[in-house]
Amino acid sequence: MRNLLTGMTVLAAVFGLAGTATAEPIKIKFSHVVADATPKGKGALEFKRLVEERLPGKVVVEVYPNSQLFGDAKEMEALLLGDVQFIAPSLSKFAKFTKKLQVFDLPFLFDDIHAIDRFQKGKIGQGLLTSMESKGYTGLGYWHNGMKQLSANKAMRVPEDAKGLKFRIQPSDVLEAQFKALSANPQKMAFAEVYQALQTGTVDGQENTWSNIYSQKFHEAQKYITETNHGVIDYMVVTNTKFWKGLPADIRSVLEKSMAEATAFSNKLALDINEADKKKIMDSGKTQIITLTKDQQAQWRKAMAPVYKQFAPDVGQDLIDAALASNKAS
User: Do residues 132 and 123 lie in contact, with contact meaning Cβ atoms separated by under 8 Å?
Assistant: First the structure.
Protein backbone atom coordinates (compact mmCIF):
# COMPACT_ATOMS: atom_id res chain seq x y z
CA MET A 1 0.00 0.00 0.00
CA ARG A 2 2.82 2.34 0.94
CA ASN A 3 4.59 1.54 -2.38
CA LEU A 4 1.36 2.27 -4.26
CA LEU A 5 0.93 5.65 -2.53
CA THR A 6 4.57 6.51 -3.13
CA GLY A 7 4.19 5.66 -6.81
CA MET A 8 1.08 7.79 -7.10
CA THR A 9 2.85 10.69 -5.41
CA VAL A 10 5.76 10.45 -7.82
CA LEU A 11 3.42 10.29 -10.81
CA ALA A 12 1.50 13.31 -9.54
CA ALA A 13 4.72 15.25 -9.12
CA VAL A 14 5.89 14.31 -12.60
CA PHE A 15 2.63 15.29 -14.23
CA GLY A 16 2.51 18.47 -12.15
CA LEU A 17 5.96 19.48 -13.30
CA ALA A 18 5.10 18.59 -16.86
CA GLY A 19 2.01 20.75 -16.64
CA THR A 20 4.07 23.66 -15.39
CA ALA A 21 6.72 23.22 -18.05
CA THR A 22 4.22 23.17 -20.90
CA ALA A 23 2.01 26.01 -19.62
CA GLU A 24 1.37 28.49 -22.41
CA PRO A 25 2.77 31.97 -21.78
CA ILE A 26 0.39 34.92 -21.60
CA LYS A 27 0.36 36.52 -25.03
CA ILE A 28 -0.02 40.28 -25.36
CA LYS A 29 -0.68 41.61 -28.84
CA PHE A 30 0.30 45.29 -28.94
CA SER A 31 -1.19 46.89 -32.04
CA HIS A 32 -0.60 50.44 -33.26
CA VAL A 33 -0.88 52.43 -36.48
CA VAL A 34 2.50 54.18 -36.89
CA ALA A 35 6.01 53.13 -37.89
CA ASP A 36 8.55 51.42 -35.64
CA ALA A 37 10.85 54.43 -36.03
CA THR A 38 8.41 56.85 -34.35
CA PRO A 39 8.34 57.54 -30.59
CA LYS A 40 5.32 55.27 -30.16
CA GLY A 41 6.89 52.53 -32.25
CA LYS A 42 10.09 52.59 -30.23
CA GLY A 43 8.14 52.73 -26.96
CA ALA A 44 6.18 49.59 -27.87
CA LEU A 45 9.39 47.72 -28.70
CA GLU A 46 11.00 48.86 -25.44
CA PHE A 47 7.96 47.60 -23.50
CA LYS A 48 8.29 44.24 -25.26
CA ARG A 49 11.99 44.06 -24.40
CA LEU A 50 11.49 44.87 -20.73
CA VAL A 51 8.57 42.48 -20.23
CA GLU A 52 10.16 39.49 -21.96
CA GLU A 53 13.43 40.09 -20.11
CA ARG A 54 11.65 40.15 -16.74
CA LEU A 55 9.05 37.46 -17.40
CA PRO A 56 10.80 34.92 -19.65
CA GLY A 57 8.49 32.11 -20.66
CA LYS A 58 5.59 33.72 -18.78
CA VAL A 59 4.64 36.62 -21.03
CA VAL A 60 5.22 37.18 -24.74
CA VAL A 61 4.61 40.61 -26.28
CA GLU A 62 3.94 40.75 -30.02
CA VAL A 63 4.14 44.25 -31.53
CA TYR A 64 2.21 45.01 -34.73
CA PRO A 65 3.01 48.48 -36.18
CA ASN A 66 1.67 50.35 -39.21
CA SER A 67 -1.93 49.09 -38.90
CA GLN A 68 -0.78 45.52 -39.67
CA LEU A 69 -3.60 44.09 -37.56
CA PHE A 70 -6.11 46.90 -37.15
CA GLY A 71 -6.40 50.47 -38.36
CA ASP A 72 -7.76 53.50 -36.58
CA ALA A 73 -11.37 52.56 -37.15
CA LYS A 74 -11.18 49.01 -35.77
CA GLU A 75 -8.58 48.89 -32.99
CA MET A 76 -10.83 50.11 -30.16
CA GLU A 77 -13.43 47.43 -30.94
CA ALA A 78 -10.70 44.81 -31.37
CA LEU A 79 -9.44 45.55 -27.86
CA LEU A 80 -12.87 45.03 -26.32
CA LEU A 81 -13.30 41.78 -28.26
CA GLY A 82 -9.93 40.48 -27.02
CA ASP A 83 -8.38 40.34 -30.49
CA VAL A 84 -5.56 42.52 -29.14
CA GLN A 85 -4.55 43.28 -25.57
CA PHE A 86 -2.75 46.64 -25.85
CA ILE A 87 -3.29 49.56 -28.19
CA ALA A 88 -2.07 53.16 -28.07
CA PRO A 89 -4.58 55.36 -29.91
CA SER A 90 -4.32 59.08 -30.26
CA LEU A 91 -6.12 60.90 -27.46
CA SER A 92 -8.56 62.17 -30.08
CA LYS A 93 -10.03 58.67 -30.40
CA PHE A 94 -11.55 58.62 -26.92
CA ALA A 95 -14.16 61.38 -27.19
CA LYS A 96 -17.01 58.88 -27.62
CA PHE A 97 -16.12 57.33 -24.25
CA THR A 98 -15.45 60.50 -22.25
CA LYS A 99 -15.78 64.11 -23.38
CA LYS A 100 -13.12 65.18 -20.88
CA LEU A 101 -10.30 63.84 -23.05
CA GLN A 102 -11.30 66.36 -25.71
CA VAL A 103 -9.21 68.80 -23.68
CA PHE A 104 -6.12 67.54 -25.53
CA ASP A 105 -7.58 68.53 -28.92
CA LEU A 106 -8.23 72.17 -28.04
CA PRO A 107 -6.02 74.38 -30.26
CA PHE A 108 -3.15 76.34 -28.72
CA LEU A 109 -3.99 75.05 -25.22
CA PHE A 110 -0.43 73.97 -24.39
CA ASP A 111 2.65 76.08 -25.06
CA ASP A 112 4.94 73.09 -25.58
CA ILE A 113 5.44 69.40 -24.87
CA HIS A 114 6.81 70.14 -21.38
CA ALA A 115 3.53 71.76 -20.35
CA ILE A 116 1.67 68.69 -21.61
CA ASP A 117 3.99 66.47 -19.60
CA ARG A 118 3.30 68.44 -16.41
CA PHE A 119 -0.45 68.21 -16.93
CA GLN A 120 -0.43 64.48 -17.67
CA LYS A 121 1.71 63.67 -14.63
CA GLY A 122 -0.50 65.72 -12.33
CA LYS A 123 -3.45 64.43 -10.30
CA ILE A 124 -6.06 65.51 -12.83
CA GLY A 125 -4.18 64.08 -15.80
CA GLN A 126 -3.60 60.77 -14.02
CA GLY A 127 -7.26 60.61 -13.09
CA LEU A 128 -8.21 60.69 -16.76
CA LEU A 129 -6.44 57.34 -17.27
CA THR A 130 -9.20 55.54 -15.37
CA SER A 131 -12.07 57.67 -16.64
CA MET A 132 -13.20 55.01 -19.15
CA GLU A 133 -13.11 51.86 -17.03
CA SER A 134 -16.90 51.61 -17.03
CA LYS A 135 -16.64 51.33 -20.84
CA GLY A 136 -14.03 48.57 -20.64
CA TYR A 137 -10.83 50.59 -21.17
CA THR A 138 -8.04 51.06 -18.63
CA GLY A 139 -5.36 53.63 -19.38
CA LEU A 140 -1.81 52.66 -18.46
CA GLY A 141 0.10 55.77 -19.49
CA TYR A 142 0.48 58.73 -21.82
CA TRP A 143 2.98 58.58 -24.65
CA HIS A 144 4.11 61.74 -26.39
CA ASN A 145 4.27 62.12 -30.10
CA GLY A 146 4.70 65.84 -30.40
CA MET A 147 3.29 69.19 -31.41
CA LYS A 148 1.25 69.45 -34.61
CA GLN A 149 2.17 71.34 -37.77
CA LEU A 150 -0.01 72.16 -40.79
CA SER A 151 0.87 71.05 -44.30
CA ALA A 152 -0.69 71.77 -47.69
CA ASN A 153 0.15 72.39 -51.32
CA LYS A 154 -0.50 76.06 -50.65
CA ALA A 155 1.64 78.35 -48.52
CA MET A 156 -0.22 79.13 -45.29
CA ARG A 157 0.95 82.11 -43.27
CA VAL A 158 -2.35 83.53 -42.01
CA PRO A 159 -5.66 81.77 -41.25
CA GLU A 160 -7.26 83.07 -44.45
CA ASP A 161 -4.80 80.94 -46.43
CA ALA A 162 -6.56 77.79 -45.18
CA LYS A 163 -9.98 78.88 -46.37
CA GLY A 164 -11.66 76.33 -48.62
CA LEU A 165 -8.89 73.73 -48.31
CA LYS A 166 -9.71 70.12 -47.45
CA PHE A 167 -7.76 68.85 -44.42
CA ARG A 168 -7.55 65.29 -43.21
CA ILE A 169 -8.39 65.03 -39.51
CA GLN A 170 -8.74 62.32 -36.92
CA PRO A 171 -12.32 61.50 -35.91
CA SER A 172 -12.67 64.36 -33.43
CA ASP A 173 -15.47 66.91 -33.10
CA VAL A 174 -12.99 69.41 -31.68
CA LEU A 175 -10.65 69.09 -34.65
CA GLU A 176 -13.60 69.36 -37.00
CA ALA A 177 -14.64 72.61 -35.29
CA GLN A 178 -11.04 73.84 -35.39
CA PHE A 179 -10.86 73.67 -39.18
CA LYS A 180 -14.38 75.00 -39.65
CA ALA A 181 -13.26 78.03 -37.62
CA LEU A 182 -10.72 78.56 -40.41
CA SER A 183 -13.46 78.17 -43.07
CA ALA A 184 -11.67 75.01 -44.21
CA ASN A 185 -13.21 71.60 -44.95
CA PRO A 186 -12.21 68.86 -42.47
CA GLN A 187 -12.27 65.27 -43.73
CA LYS A 188 -12.18 62.42 -41.20
CA MET A 189 -9.86 59.71 -42.44
CA ALA A 190 -7.81 56.78 -41.11
CA PHE A 191 -4.10 57.45 -40.69
CA ALA A 192 -3.12 54.65 -43.09
CA GLU A 193 -5.06 56.34 -45.90
CA VAL A 194 -3.53 59.81 -45.62
CA TYR A 195 -0.50 59.51 -47.92
CA GLN A 196 -2.55 58.30 -50.88
CA ALA A 197 -5.20 60.94 -50.19
CA LEU A 198 -2.53 63.65 -50.31
CA GLN A 199 -1.03 62.22 -53.50
CA THR A 200 -4.35 62.02 -55.32
CA GLY A 201 -5.68 65.33 -54.07
CA THR A 202 -8.56 63.78 -52.14
CA VAL A 203 -7.43 66.17 -49.41
CA ASP A 204 -5.30 69.30 -49.76
CA GLY A 205 -3.49 69.09 -46.46
CA GLN A 206 -3.23 67.59 -43.00
CA GLU A 207 -1.98 68.27 -39.46
CA ASN A 208 0.67 66.12 -37.82
CA THR A 209 3.92 65.92 -35.92
CA TRP A 210 7.33 66.09 -37.56
CA SER A 211 7.98 62.41 -36.86
CA ASN A 212 4.71 61.28 -38.42
CA ILE A 213 5.16 63.59 -41.41
CA TYR A 214 8.65 62.23 -42.07
CA SER A 215 8.03 58.53 -41.34
CA GLN A 216 4.91 58.47 -43.54
CA LYS A 217 6.58 60.64 -46.24
CA PHE A 218 3.80 63.22 -46.15
CA HIS A 219 6.42 65.89 -46.90
CA GLU A 220 6.99 64.30 -50.29
CA ALA A 221 3.35 64.92 -51.18
CA GLN A 222 3.08 68.45 -49.74
CA LYS A 223 4.79 71.60 -51.00
CA TYR A 224 4.56 73.51 -47.72
CA ILE A 225 4.59 72.85 -43.98
CA THR A 226 3.66 75.69 -41.65
CA GLU A 227 5.25 75.38 -38.22
CA THR A 228 2.24 76.27 -36.07
CA ASN A 229 2.64 74.06 -32.99
CA HIS A 230 -1.11 74.59 -32.69
CA GLY A 231 -1.94 71.32 -30.97
CA VAL A 232 -0.65 68.00 -29.76
CA ILE A 233 -0.78 64.41 -30.88
CA ASP A 234 -0.27 62.20 -27.87
CA TYR A 235 -1.40 58.68 -27.15
CA MET A 236 -2.91 56.77 -24.28
CA VAL A 237 -1.77 53.18 -23.93
CA VAL A 238 -4.93 51.29 -23.04
CA THR A 239 -5.83 47.72 -22.27
CA ASN A 240 -9.05 45.79 -21.82
CA THR A 241 -10.16 46.38 -18.20
CA LYS A 242 -11.37 42.82 -17.72
CA PHE A 243 -8.14 41.38 -19.14
CA TRP A 244 -6.01 43.68 -17.00
CA LYS A 245 -7.80 42.95 -13.73
CA GLY A 246 -7.81 39.23 -14.51
CA LEU A 247 -4.03 38.99 -14.65
CA PRO A 248 -2.15 37.47 -11.70
CA ALA A 249 -1.08 40.26 -9.36
CA ASP A 250 2.63 39.47 -9.70
CA ILE A 251 2.43 39.55 -13.52
CA ARG A 252 0.46 42.79 -13.51
CA SER A 253 2.99 44.40 -11.18
CA VAL A 254 5.85 43.67 -13.59
CA LEU A 255 3.80 44.93 -16.53
CA GLU A 256 3.05 48.16 -14.67
CA LYS A 257 6.72 48.70 -13.88
CA SER A 258 7.72 47.94 -17.47
CA MET A 259 5.03 50.29 -18.82
CA ALA A 260 6.24 53.12 -16.56
CA GLU A 261 9.80 52.66 -17.83
CA ALA A 262 8.73 52.33 -21.47
CA THR A 263 6.68 55.51 -21.07
CA ALA A 264 9.67 57.45 -19.75
CA PHE A 265 11.80 56.00 -22.54
CA SER A 266 9.32 56.88 -25.29
CA ASN A 267 8.62 60.37 -24.00
CA LYS A 268 12.30 61.20 -23.76
CA LEU A 269 12.72 60.14 -27.38
CA ALA A 270 9.76 62.11 -28.66
CA LEU A 271 11.35 65.55 -28.55
CA ASP A 272 14.65 64.37 -30.02
CA ILE A 273 13.03 62.38 -32.82
CA ASN A 274 10.74 65.23 -33.82
CA GLU A 275 13.63 67.68 -33.97
CA ALA A 276 15.75 65.22 -35.96
CA ASP A 277 12.91 64.48 -38.38
CA LYS A 278 12.23 68.17 -38.85
CA LYS A 279 15.85 68.56 -39.94
CA LYS A 280 15.58 65.57 -42.29
CA ILE A 281 12.52 67.15 -43.89
CA MET A 282 14.39 70.44 -44.31
CA ASP A 283 17.43 68.68 -45.75
CA SER A 284 15.31 66.70 -48.21
CA GLY A 285 14.40 69.84 -50.13
CA LYS A 286 11.04 68.34 -51.00
CA THR A 287 8.96 70.86 -49.09
CA GLN A 288 9.25 74.40 -47.76
CA ILE A 289 8.91 74.97 -44.02
CA ILE A 290 7.21 78.25 -43.16
CA THR A 291 8.06 79.90 -39.84
CA LEU A 292 5.36 82.25 -38.54
CA THR A 293 5.97 85.68 -37.09
CA LYS A 294 4.52 86.47 -33.66
CA ASP A 295 1.78 88.49 -35.31
CA GLN A 296 0.88 85.64 -37.68
CA GLN A 297 0.84 83.16 -34.78
CA ALA A 298 -1.51 85.48 -32.90
CA GLN A 299 -3.86 85.53 -35.89
CA TRP A 300 -4.07 81.72 -35.90
CA ARG A 301 -4.79 81.71 -32.16
CA LYS A 302 -7.54 84.28 -32.56
CA ALA A 303 -9.13 82.43 -35.46
CA MET A 304 -9.34 79.18 -33.48
CA ALA A 305 -10.40 80.75 -30.16
CA PRO A 306 -14.19 80.18 -30.67
CA VAL A 307 -13.58 76.42 -30.33
CA TYR A 308 -13.02 76.87 -26.57
CA LYS A 309 -16.44 78.38 -25.98
CA GLN A 310 -18.07 75.61 -28.00
CA PHE A 311 -16.53 72.72 -26.07
CA ALA A 312 -16.02 74.12 -22.54
CA PRO A 313 -19.40 72.76 -21.33
CA ASP A 314 -18.45 69.20 -22.34
CA VAL A 315 -14.79 69.26 -21.34
CA GLY A 316 -15.26 71.29 -18.17
CA GLN A 317 -13.82 74.75 -17.59
CA ASP A 318 -11.98 73.46 -14.53
CA LEU A 319 -10.12 70.96 -16.70
CA ILE A 320 -9.28 73.62 -19.27
CA ASP A 321 -8.01 75.93 -16.51
CA ALA A 322 -5.82 73.15 -15.08
CA ALA A 323 -4.34 72.52 -18.52
CA LEU A 324 -3.65 76.22 -19.02
CA ALA A 325 -1.99 76.37 -15.59
CA SER A 326 0.47 73.69 -16.71
CA ASN A 327 2.03 76.22 -19.07
CA LYS A 328 3.65 77.81 -16.03
CA ALA A 329 6.57 75.72 -14.79
CA SER A 330 6.48 75.27 -11.01
Answer: no
The dihedral over CA atoms of 214, 220, 223, 224, expressed in degrees to the nearest 10, equals 0
| Parallel/antiparallel/unpaired status of strands 149-152 and 224-227 | antiparallel
State how beta strands 137-147 and 232-240 pair.
antiparallel
Helices (H) and strands (E) in the chain, counts: 13, 11
Cα angle: 96, vertex 79, 203; to 5 degrees = 55
At 151, which helix (H) or strand (E)?
A: strand 149-152
- For the purposes of burial, counting CB atoms within 10 Å of the CB of 202, is it exposed (0-12), middle (13-18) or buried (19 or more)? middle
Parallel, antiparallel, or unpaired for β 224-227 and 185-188? unpaired
Q: First and final CA of the chain: distance in angstroms? A: 76
CB 278 within 8 Å of CB 62: no
Question: 266-311: per-residue pLDDT in tens?
Answer: 999 998 989 999 999 999 999 999 999 999 999 999 999 999 999 9
* Contacts (Cβ under 8 Å, ≥6 apart) of 276: none
Angle ∠(316,319,321) on CA atoms, nearest 5: 110
Each residue's pLDDT tens digit, 234-269? 999 999 999 999 999 999 999 999 999 999 999 999
Contact status, residue 76 vs residue 170, Cβ threshold 8 Å: no
CB 133, CB 240: distance < 8 Å = no
At a CB cut-off of 8 Å and minimum separation 6, what does 252 contact? 244
What residues pair up with 61 in beta bridges, in sequence order? 28
In the predicted structure, residue 139 carries a pLDDT above the cut 80: yes
Rg (CA), the chain: 23
> Of 206, 207, 102, 209, which is closest to residue 145 (Cα–Cα)?
209
